[in-house]
Amino acid sequence: MVTNIPTREYDDPSVETNRRAAEYRGQWIYFLLKAMREHGFDYESIGRKAIFALGRSNKAGFPDNNSAKDLINTLLAPGSAEPMQIEPVSVEEEKAQVTFGYCPMCNIWQKLTDDQDFIANLCDIAMDVDRGLLSTYDQLELVLDGGRISAGHCRCDFAVKKTK
User: Fold this and answer.
1) Which one-letter DSSP state was computed for residue 93?
2) Would 122 be classed as within a structural domain?
3) Total structural domains in the chain?
4) Is the confidence at residue 36, as pLDDT, over 90?
C-alpha cells in the first residue's frame, strides 16, 4: 500500500501550486496510459519512449557538466525541492543522493485507482523523465537502489553517480 503523506508545512503558497501542477501531470500520465492499455496498445513502451524523450528535452535547465553534485543541487534549489520534500543525503562530486519525502503524482494516482501494481508501474514510467535527462550526460547515471513511495516506502531514494 502506498504511504504518501506530506510531513512538512510551507508558508510559501507556490509549494501547493507546484504540487497541484505535478498532480495534473500525473493525471495526464494516468489517463493517457490507462486508455492505451484499455485499447490494447503497448502503453508501457509508448509511455516510456515519450517520457524519456521529455527528459532529454529538459537538459537546458540543468548544468552542462558531468558533476553529480551540480545536477543534484539543481533539484535542491529553493522552489524546486519543497513540493516533493527533496532532502539531501550526501552531495559529493562523484555521487549525490537525495530522498523525496512526498510525491504529488502518487497522491493523485491513489485517488484514481486502487491498483497498486499499476501505480508502481506508472511511477517507474514517470521516472523515465529522469533516465532521459541523465542519458544526455556521458559520465552520469541514475541510481534507484532504495525505497520508492509507489512501492509502499515512506520516501523515494534517488542518486546520481559518476560513471568515469
Assistant:
1) S
2) yes
3) 1
4) yes
